Amino acid sequence: MMKHKNGLNAFFKPRGCAVVGASRDDKKAGRQVVENMIAAGFLNREGSPQIYLVNPNEEGSLYNIKFYPSLKSIPGTVELVILTVSANRIEEVVADIEARMAVYNDIQAIIVIAAGFAEIGTDEGKKRQKLLVECCRKYGIRIIGPNCVGIIDNINNLDSTFILGTKHKPGGISLISQSGAIGSWLLMDWASQSPEIGFNKFISLGNMADVNIVECLEYLGQDENTKVIGMYMEGYTKVRDLLEVAKEVKKEKPVVVLKVGRTKSGSKAAQSHTGSMAGADSIYDGAFKQYGVLRVDSMEELSDSLRAFDSMPLPQGKRIFVVTQAGGPGIYCIDALGDSSEFEFAKISDNAKKHLKEVLPPFASICHPEGHVDITAAANPVQHREAVETVLSEESVDALILITVPTLFTPAREIGITLKEGILNLRAKGINKPFFPVILSGNAVLEAKMILEEAGIVTFATPDRAVKALKQMIRYSFYRRERVL
Amino acid sequence: MKGLAEYQALTYLKEYGINVVPMKLVADMEEALNFVEEVAYPVVLKGVVRDLYHKSELGIVKININNDEMLKKAWGEIEQSVNKTGMKSEGMLIQKMVHGVEVIVGASYEEQFGPVVMVGIGGIYTEIFRDVAFRLAPVTLDEAYHMLKELRLYKILKGARGQGQLCIDGLLDIVVKVSNLITNEGIKEIDLNPVIVTLQDAIVVDALIIQTANGDGRLCKY
After folding, report:
1. How many structural domains comprise chain B?
2. Would residue A197 be called left, alpha or beta, if left means φ above 0 and alpha means ψ between -120 and 50 degrees?
């Protein structure tokens, strides 16, 4: 397919944008898209790009933005079109695109939010998709969708989706999703955290009638504002193409994939043992390892891993340390760490042990076994900080998990403040290592978590979630260091 | 789709440079005894029947044959079993008996992925244990090693319970060669099961090859 010379840029940095199917009706996607574009700050961004609303059945304006009866009747530049009208009006829309291109020749990209195309499997649906694709191909116009929720770019102030409640806080995470609903789930969840979790770009792929998952991965791989890429995948026919691109991208930044469909095993008739065991999922699993793609098993792991990569430097090695303030959660965490083929417990120096013995409560357990200090429930906030600073200052420690359950005598808020000071103090000394604070739990410790999160120190909900994110980081630094394919 | 059963498959693999157990297709006891002269007991005797791929259930495989008497007895029993099936006997396959850890090395051509290669715990229970790792083929030696490392099998090969380390290098060589085979030779599915891994060796003792419908012509000569 013919590619526009700017790749996918027109989707993210259009000079003008038309919402076809824009509506006053707040039950319509065409209304929410307009609201999201405004909320993202599209109108305020550099170069003052315009939004144009297209709907022959509306007159006047919405939020001071004027309605036009057709694309052709818009006087200014339209580089991006967001199609929200239903699929059965596609002939009319295609005729309007043709009419505009004949005069202005300015449209470069179309996002098709409507469903009712090839994904419904009928001849009618396929015909509609073909009609649109052929028209766009003629002019070199790129398409995302149909049947997607749209795209977001928090750095370029664009939100073409109809997802409710997204906050447009920029961050280093970019996302590609084969399901609009899964993408919405994650973004709505991030928006509801306090403070909200930021991201850079979000692309809902839909039917991939033109722009496919491979091209998006490549684009985000080259995007300088993207630090880590998250993908939700259901399946793709050209797996090798995708993996070849992932292999290149992972040299620069981690690619984290939530690939679903684990239980579907190969049901084909096979005559060999190999053939019968070769289910798509087990092959995906092996291929991801082969190409250095990080596979996660759940939305929580996807979110935690992406946030860890976005907020922390990579661990220099696989030597980890665990500081706990209570026995139970400590054992729970060690269990969650499980089989140690991927990491080892760090051994700290005798000096560090001696220092810890001096500053920690008398019953603290120091390095029995190695790699673990239990500061006990008697530890005050300052003793938390002492343990964290001492351990992270050790050359032999690559990453630290801290688990604490604030009590009556260790107010959560104070723990938040002191830990933050400790980490910032280390950073000022040039020590910045992966740190996984787990403050248990719920509303009572919310303030402590907020204090850390607002300082850019990501917190983790449970010991196992911290462990999973840490393991993904260790895996990735291994892919980067030792397995350059 | 056409299949190459044991003898043809093993011969093919041997020509491809894969370490295959010493074996011979024999028509009578005399030829069998001549083979024993060369390799010494113990040996395995297998009935050869056209287009029969999974034969362990039919009583036409006798293992751990340690002397001439046992060999004669095995010969007679296999002949009887083959007759019972009503299929035409094409002689017997005699092989050197090798003891070690049973591993499966396999490969298949998958629509979505193209050629893939697999290694794992072998033997008749391979599909029950499912301790197998897949990769897209071909694989490098390094990648083959990473496949092994993610398996429980790896711990066995490293020498569990005071045993010495088994011949992992030999096994890796087979994995790499099979991954090249599936990539280049017009094969649909291939099982090397078991590959017996010993202290000194990794050696294929049974194999099955399923060609693609329009598979490589040179396979058809067997």
Report:
1. 2
2. beta
Structural domain includes residue B15: no
Q: Helix, strand or coil for residue B49?
A: strand
Beta-bridge partner residues of B46: B61, B93
Beta bridge partners of A294: A256
- If pLDDT is split at 50, 70 and 90, which confidence band does B38 have? very high
Query: Where is A435: in which H helix or E strand?
Result: strand A435-439
Contact A60, A22 (CB under 8 A): no
ipTM of the complex: 0.89
3-state helix, strand, coil split of chain A in percent (to 5) is 40, 15, 40
Is the residue at B10 inside a domain? no
Scan for tokens 């980081």, then name that residue.
A473
For B118-169, the pLDDT digits (tens) are 999 999 899 999 999 999 999 999 999 999 999 999 999 999 878 899 999 9
HEC states along A82-123? EECCCHHHHHHHHHHHHHHHHHCCCCCEEEECCCCCHHHCCH
Cβ within 8 Å of residue A257, ≥6 positions away: A230, A231, A232, A233, A288, A293, A294, A295, A296
| Whether A202 contacts A183, CB under 8 Å | yes
Which of these three, B40, B62, B96, is where a domain ends?
A: B96
Bridge partners (DSSP) listed for residue B195 = B103, B204
Using CB atoms, which residue from B136, B149, B189 is nearest to A275? B189
Is residue B76 a part of any domain in this protein? yes
- CB-based contacts of A161: which residues, under 8 Å, 6+ apart? A32, A33, A36, A113, A149, A150, A151, A152, A184, A202, A204
- Please, which pLDDT band fits residue B58 given cuts at 50, 70 and 90? confident
CATH code of residue B92 = 3.30.1490.20
* The token pair that represents B119 in the structure block: 């290694």
Q: pTM to 2 decimals?
A: 0.94
Does B120 fall in a domain?
A: yes
- Cα separation of A373 and A325, whole Å? 8
Flag whether pLDDT at A317 surpasses 60.
Answer: yes
Q: Considering only CB atoms, which residues of chain B are within 8 Å of chain A?
A: 1, 3, 53, 104, 106-108, 110, 112-114, 116, 118, 120, 126-127, 130, 132-136, 139, 142-143, 146-147, 149-150, 188-191, 193, 208, 210
Contact B104 A240 (CB under 8 A): no
Check: CB of residue A281 under 8 Å from CB of residue A264.
yes
Boundary of a domain, candidates B96, B126, B153: B96
Q: Write the DSSP string, A185-199.
A: HHHHHHHTSSSPPP-
Domain ranges, residue B86: 22-96
Give the angle A85-A90-A95 at the CA atoms, nearest 5°. Answer: 115
φ, ψ of residue A334 in degrees (nearest 5): -65, -40
Residues of B in contact with A274 (CB under 8 A): 104, 106-108, 118, 189-191
CB within 8 Å: B130 and A272: no
Tell me the chain A residues in contact with residue B108 when contact means C-beta distances shorter than 8 Å: 270, 272, 274-275, 278
